[in-house]
Design brief:
The protein has about 280 residues and is of the alpha/beta class. It is about 40% helix and about 15% strand. Helix 1 runs parallel beside helix 2 and helix 5 packs across helix 6. It binds adenosine monophosphate, zinc ion and fe (iii) ion (2 copies).
């Protein structure tokens, strides 16, 4: 089967916490023979214009997107991320919301570094900002410096021992409410999609119940195909999509070297996300 029928609708670039620039990411996707990719950087759409340009150059369909973290209390530490696909880059309210989130991210960095300093790690804030460049700064940038300076043995080690929720240097970031996020995406003519539903840590019956409310507030789709989903998870999410009349999405959450082992389009190797999902989305937009 040729790869030109496949897509990746969840990727991160240097505009947030991925390690490939938008242009490099589109080139990679193109060289892998993918037909379309969505760029879904956290809290930003600033990488998308150059990706669109490279897409036109290399004949690759680039879907403008973003990924938003949601303030929502779930049992068992579950968390919700919402993807917005087919975003209008000029949408005013969305741009304002994203700029506010990025400002809050910048304010969080020195707080995390202050705690790390108490733990004996010297990481200057300007070095973090340098690594983040123009991108939305986040914990993976700090983790990379911890690795570089020998304070951690891997990015995962930095998260596990210091940065993850519940660890000593965890500082929560500002998040949007669920309705707020869905509304911002819809006002931007986008399609709101529940990202990597396994992170909600709900059973299928619990998610089934929650989806009624999510659909009510305007959710349009669910990311059934995802790098770490098991066959059973994918099957369960596909059934829920069908039951709730939700669009099906799929992506790898590619981050380059910040998530080693995850390949664009194929995740850990066996993911195949059909272009027909994109056609379905376009039919109902
Ligand atoms: P932040 O945006 O600062 O809250 O950081 C969240 C980012 O860190 C997301 O892209 C996650 O995928 C990433 N992340 C969380 N845990 C890990 C981990 N153990 N290894 C690598 N990346 C992680
Ligand atoms: Zn990320
Ligand atoms: Fe996410
Ligand atoms: Fe992501």
């Amino acid at each position: 089967m040729s790869m030109c029928e496949f897509v990746d609708l969840h990727t991160h670039t240097t505009a947030s916490d991925g390690t490939l620039s938008p242009v490099e990411l589109v080139k990679l996707a193109s060289s892998q023979g993918l037909r379309a990719i969505a760029i879904t950087d956290h809290d930003t759409i600033l990488g998308i214009p150059e990706a669109l340009k490279e897409g036109r150059r290399s004949g690759m369909e680039v879907i403008p997107g973003t990924e938003l973290s949601i303030e929502y209390v779930l049992p068992n530490n579950g968390h919700i991320h919402i993807l917005g696909l087919f975003i209008d880059l000029e949408a005013e309210a969305l741009n304002k919301g994203l700029a506010w989130l990025r400002k809050k991210r910048e304010e969080r960095t020195p707080k995390i570094l202050g705690i790390l300093r108490e733990q004996g790690m010297d990481i200057p804030v300007n070095e973090v900002n340098e690594i983040a460049g123009k991108g939305a700064v986040g914990r993976p940038h700090i983790a990379r410096l911890m690795l570089k300076k020998g304070y951690a043995s891997s990015i995962n080690d930095a998260f596990e021992r210091y940065l993850k929720k519940g660890a000593v240097a965890y500082v929560p970031k500002e998040k949007l409410g669920l309705e707020q996020a869905v509304n911002l995406i819809r006002e931007a003519k986008g399609t709101p999609i529940l990202a990597h539903p396994f992170t909600l840590n709900l059973s299928f019956p619990e998610l089934d119940e929650l989806l009624i409310g999510l659909k009510d507030i305007g959710l349009r789709g669910i990311e059934a195909f995802y790098s770490t989903h098991s066959k059973e998870q994918t099957k369960g999410y596909l059934e829920l999509a069908e039951k709730h009349d939700l669009l099906v999405s799929g992506g790898t959450d590619f981050h380059g070297e910040n998530k080693p082992g995850i390949n664009i389009g194929t995740g850990f190797g066996d993911l195949r996300i059909p272009y027909s999902l994109v056609e379905r989305m376009k039919m109902v937009i």
